[in-house]
């Protein structure tokens, strides 16, 4: 499985991982500022953007597979910054190979995206399964709906949605197996217990108006990993780096 990778800028290495259904083009509005401070490495997730499709893996096993694939092309050591699904993969990489991750930066991400009996701080399982079923029937319409969900309730949602749509149009649509395997990860992965063993510095940025990763995670996450520093960004939805770029860059600089 060959993954697309690009590197630019100078300074400490910063690896950027995008979310489900999108690709590394989503980071482009931030690149001028980031490459002044970092060597920015972008990788398209398996089956997304210009990366080859992965084999379809059922269950949470896909998370470890994707993390291994990314570690194979990642720098020897870097700060891993992951948005949404990318943040879940970054967490897994930090647990699998802590010596490769100098710091962890999570944006609108969580160790468990779907509700469990003891975990209400996530999407309802029934809603998620309905979304997966709709994807199989009409991928393009479902992706459009997913983009709309990412900005719902946030400040200036039309502008953020337009940026997401522009980014999505830059590269070919994600492969069916990439989308399906990514959904398997989101549905089944649960890293809550493992976070207690996290051995790298970590910080999380959450949107106060996020409809996919609830803001109550800001209180729940420190209970799982007391050393993770959490910031809740008022007015932001699921894509705070696009809706509030200056606040995002300040948060990243605070690390």
CATH architecture: 3-Layer(aba) Sandwich
Shape: globular
CATH superfamily: Alpha/Beta hydrolase fold, catalytic domain
Overall mean confidence score, pLDDT:
93
User: Multimeric state of these chains?
Assistant: single chain
Number of DSSP strands? 7
Distance between the ends: 33 Å
The ordered string of helix (H) and strand (E) elements is EEHEHEHEHHHHEHEHH
Give unreliable regions as ranges.
none
Number of domains: 1
Structural class by secondary-structure content = alpha/beta
What's the CATH class, please? Alpha Beta
Helix percent reads 40-55%
The number of helical elements comes to 10
Strand order of the largest sheet: 1-3-2-4-5-6-7
State Rg: 16 Å
- CATH fold naming: Rossmann fold
The biggest sheet amounts to: 7 strands, mixed
Q: What is the percentage of strand-forming residues?
A: 15-25%
Secondary structure layout:
Blueprint: E1 5-9, E2 13-17, H1 31-34, E3 39-43, H2 61-73, E4 78-83, H3 85-96, E5 101-107, H4 125-137, H5 139-151, H6 157-168, H7 176-188, E6 202-207, H8 217-224, E7 229-233, H9 240-243, H10 245-254
Parallel strand pairs: 2-3, 2-4, 4-5, 5-6, 6-7
Antiparallel strand pairs: 1-3
Short description:
The protein is of the alpha/beta class. It is built from 10 helices and 7 strands. It has one domain: Rossmann fold (3-Layer(aba) Sandwich).
């Amino acid at each position: 499985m060959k993954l697309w990778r690009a590197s630019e800028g100078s300074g400490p290495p910063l690896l950027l991982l995008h979310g489900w259904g999108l690709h590394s083009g989503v980071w482009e509005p931030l690149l001028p500022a980031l490459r002044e401070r970092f060597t920015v490495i972008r990788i398209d997730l398996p089956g997304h953007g210009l990366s080859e499709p992965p084999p379809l893996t059922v269950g949470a096993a896909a998370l470890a597979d994707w993390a291994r694939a990314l570690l194979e092309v990642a720098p020897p050591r870097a700060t891993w910054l992951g948005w949404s699904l990318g943040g879940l993969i970054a967490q897994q990489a930090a647990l699998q190979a802590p010596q490769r991750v100098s710091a962890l930066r999570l944006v609108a991400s969580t160790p468990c995206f779907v509700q469990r009996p003891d975990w209400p701080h996530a999407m309802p399982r029934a809603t998620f399964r309905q979304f997966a079923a709709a994807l199989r029937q009409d991928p393009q319409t479902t992706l459009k709906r997913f983009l709309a969900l990412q900005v719902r309730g946030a400040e200036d949602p039309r502008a953020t949605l337009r940026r997401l749509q522009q980014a999505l149009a830059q590269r070919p649509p994600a492969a069916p197996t990439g989308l399906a395997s990514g959904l398997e990860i989101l549905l089944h992965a649960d890293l809550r217990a493992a976070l207690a063993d996290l051995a790298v510095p970590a910080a999380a940025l959450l949107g106060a108006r996020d409809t996919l990763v609830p803001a109550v995670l800001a209180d729940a996450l420190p209970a799982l990993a007391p050393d993770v520093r959490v910031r809740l960004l008022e007015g932001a939805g699921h894509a705070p780096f696009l809706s509030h770029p200056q606040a995002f860059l300040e948060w990243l600089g605070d690390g």
